[in-house]
Structures are given as C-alpha cells and as structure tokens.
Amino acid sequence: MATTARPLVSVKALDGDMATDAAGVPMPHVMKAPIRPDVITFVHRLVSCNSRQPYAVSRKAGHQTSAESWGTGRAVSRIPRVGGGGTHRAGQGAFGNMCRGGRMFAPTRIWRKWHRRVNVRLRRVAVASALAATAVPAIVTARGHRIESVPEFPLVVSDSAEGIEKTAQAIKVLKQLGAYADAEKAKQSVGIRPGKGKMRNRRYINRKGPLIVYGTEGSKIVKAFRNLPGVDVANVERLNLLDLAPGGHLGRFVIWTESAFKKLDEVYGSFEASSSKKKGFVLPRPKMTNADLGRLINSDEVQSVVKPINKEVKRREARKNPLKNAAAVLKLNPYFGTARRMAVLAEAARVKARKEKINSKRTKLSEEASKIKAAGKAWYQTMISDSDYTEFDVFSKWLGVSQ
Amino acid sequence: RPQMSSEAAKVVVPESVLLKRKREELWAAEKKTKAVEEKKKSSENIKVIYARAKQYAEEYDAQDKELVQLKREARMKGGFYVSPEAKLLFVVRIRGINAMHPKTKKILQLLRLRQIFNGVFLKVNKATINMLRRVEPYVAYGYPNLKSVRELIYKRGYGKLNKQRIPLTNNKVIEEGLGKHNIICIEDLVHEILTVGPHFKEANNFLWPFKLKAPLGGLKKKRNHYVEGGDAGNRENYINQLVRRMN
Prior knowledge:
B: about 250 residues
C-alpha cells in the first residue's frame, strides 16, 4: 500500500467554472481495497432480502368448510367431504392439498424469516470492495456501462455540479462529461417486465445508468438527476451496496463530486488509520500484497532456488521377449552374440568332424565300383523323368501304373 | 528496421534476466557433463558384464563336464556317483484360491504364491521343506536346471523396484535393485539364483513371483501327488519339463 505514491485524480470542471490550477485530488484509500466478488455476492444476496414484503396465503384458505370424512364402507376414498346437499359442492373432497378447493400443502406464513442480518464489518468490507471496483474501467465496462467517452477514471466533477437544479442542465453536464451515452442507454432500455411482475406494480424495467455521488447534505443535485431513468443519486456518507453492485455485479459507473471524493477518506479510513465516521473500521488488507504471479515467479529470489526445467518425457520401455528378439537379448547379455556364434561354429565343426570320422570308417569303394554306382543312380533318374512324358499317359493308365 | 536495432543496443537488460541466462548455461553444462559421465560408465559396465557372462558360461560348462567325469570315474571303479542334493527349488502353485485351510493359505502367501500358476524360486533348507510339505497338495516343485532358470528370468522376469513390478528390459533395472550386492546384469542374477549364492535371498526377493501360463498339454491330475500319477508335490528334475510347457 504505497500511500506515498497515491495517484492524483483530476477534477473535471464544468462550463462556467472558474479555471483552477489545482493538480487534483489524491486517490482515496478505499479505491485500493481488495476487490472481492465472493464477499460482494454473499453480502448482496443477504442484503437484498431486507426490503422484502411478506407474502402468504390466507389463514382461512381451504378451511372454510365443515367437511368430515365419510369413513370406510362407502366405496369412496377417506378424504373429508363437504356435507349437505343440493349443490355440486356437496360430497366433494375438502381440506387436503390434493383436493380441489382445499388448503395448499404447507400454507405460506408471514412469520417466515424475510430479512437477513449481515455482520457490520462484512457489509462495510463489501461496500469498500465495490467502491474499489468502480475505479477500474475494465470492470465497469464489463458490467455493461457505456464509458467509451469518459475522459478519466474515477470520474470526479467539480462541486458546482452540486448546485445544479434543473434536469435539463443535468443532462448537459452528463454530455460534457461523456457520461451521457450510459444515461441514454438506460433511457432507451425502458421496457415492460416479462412475467407476472407487470401486474404486480412492477411494470417497467430499465438498465442502470451512472450513479452520482455527492458530498454535501441537502444538495439540489438530487432533484436534478432523480428524474433521469437509470441514473441514481447517493450521498457519500450513505452508500448502498445494492447501488454500487447492482445484481451482485461489480463495477457501477460512478460520477463523484469533488467534495464527495474528498470525503471518502474520512468515511472509510485507510489501511492503517481507522475511519472517523465508522467506528473502529479499518480497510481490509488483501491476501497478497503483490498479486503479479508472473513477476513473482520470474523474480530472482525464486529463480535462484528453482531446479532446472525437465522436459524429458519418461516413457515406458517396450518389453521385447529376449528369448525371441535378438536386440532384446543383446541389451541384457552382450556376451550372447559371441556365445551363439561360438556355439554355431562348434556345431559346424562337430558335424564336420563326425562326418569325416564316419567316412574314414566306411569301406572305400574302388574307382570303378563308385562309377558303376553313380551310373546306376543316373539311370534311375532318367527312368523317373522318362515316365513323365505325356504320351505314355494313356499307356500308364491302361497299365494301372501310378506315377 | 535499422532504427530498431540501434534502439535495441541501448535497451537495458534487467539483472534478473542476465542472472537467469547464466544459471541456464550452468545447468546446460552440468547436464552435458553428466551425460558424458553416464555414457562412459555404461560403456565400462558393458565390458564388465561381458566378462562376467563369459566367466559364467565357462563355469556352467565346467560344471557339466565335471559331473560327467565324476560319474564315469565312479562307474569305472564299479561304484556310483551320488550328486549332492539340490540347493534350489522351483515351486509352482497348481491349485486355485477357493476353499483353503487358513494355515495353508498363509503358508502359500508367505511363499508369495498367491495366484494359480505363480512360480517362485526357493532355497532348500529344513524350514522351506517343512513349509512345502504342508502345502504339498497345492504346489508342484522340483529342481530347475540352467535352461529353466535362464528362460524364466529372461522371458518372465520382473523386478520389484519401489514396490512396483518392473520388467527386466535392461540391466539398469537389475543394477538399481541389486547393485549393492554386486549383481548388475541379468546373467549375474541367473548365476546367483542357480548357484544359490550368498545374496540369494535378496536376489530372489527382487524377482517378482513368475506369472506362468497354464501348461500347454495340460496337467495330469491336480488332485493327486506326482508319485500317484498326478501333479502335486516334488517331481524333482521333471519340473523342468513342466516349466518348458508353462513358460
């Protein structure tokens, strides 16, 4: 909370104001309060209950009969039935919630709890948070206000605005400030409410325009602005969450008068000093003093103790069967290759040795004898190939010789 | 464009960025040296593993030859060579998990045989023999030979690392699990199991119980003992045939 470097908000001068050389008003501390949409939703929901009017069904409804059950034995259900005769109503079921003309289930009662209490501090924190949100143009735009032509945020107007009496002049002022687009949007949005509300004295609805906040009690500004649809007026000492965050949504477009803006510090205090108007109230402190995560992470203090980034993805090693896959075996047992090779060579050598041994033990045929043997083998081959001739097919069939 | 470059030369680089750059250089350098070191270590390792595998192969050959020689010697003298009793057993559970006496169930759990056709290696001593005797109708066991041990560990070997069942795809897994007992490759593991070495307990416990398939060709008769023509109990060397069919 660098209160030493509080920005200055310039005050917009209206036509007819004397030219001042004032640098501006320092930003009040409320505008730096933490923005807590969760607190605001909570408080807004509860606080909205407080202007409710009770509704209930008539106490007598459904019981204005002297119906009695006919009991069993009459082939009808046991629901109490209206006595008497001569009319449709006689014998009809009564009293039950299932009966036509009967009392409803759990008739609504007026002693239902309509209002909710909210802790004072919570209420104040919610308003402070909502005020902080009104200073952020992004949030205000997100809420839907037309603030494209507004020169500065927050928008502070000189105190001559508090003297405005006529609505025509009020419109002129809004146009000067670039705030008329928002007010115009509200004016054009007037329409008939969908639903039963239109027959219950809530016929017209419209969007919310700017909220004018004034500082001095009894200013004529209230009367000037109050007829403008969508435009609300509020005294800075009595700011309402339902106006600052309508519908529970942060970021109402607020137009401050100079005296109102200056009073904010008095009304809400600062983060250290308690407010003078709200006894013992100090603005809530944010959870993180520096919420810029990017800056924090990339700061030297963090980066110096951080481990190197690890981008390698450890994937499962495909399991290959070493009894079948050569690469898998060699990975496990590099000696396998040599062992196999040696075994193969040894086997080949063994086979050869055995062959030689046998051959040496066999009686050697003489040259002549081996020639004769070879000739005999050759003749056998020709005999087989000869019998392959197709000419002899019929002959062989006749003979019954199988190939 | 030329204007931008002259402007860029005047841009002040924040100190944090400079520090980060320096740090990243340091990390990159560290990573590189580590990678180089690791490569060197692994290449040295391969040499060691090669040498050991060779040594074991020779050892196994020598053992086989010795056995033959001793037998021949004894036969020549007219006597008999009785080979020493086996030190290693392979136990396979052949029955399911239903309707079991709680004590036998517990013993099978202690033997890490929680599922049908699970197999474990077991050291032979009084304690284990007595345990096996109590669970005899549920298991088939015998004395595995080198081929059985090797094929089981190669094909169905998984190690217990960090309580997880990790396949033995490369020797790093084994080194991580059993490095402190000087078992750094799969051949070391096979040797330790086969010869029931000094760190058999750790090596065996490192091996997750083998999940074998149901034997091709079927079992003879689960309900009977092997000697009665069934499958349960000690079948000594014939366990190897069973392992061939189940692996």
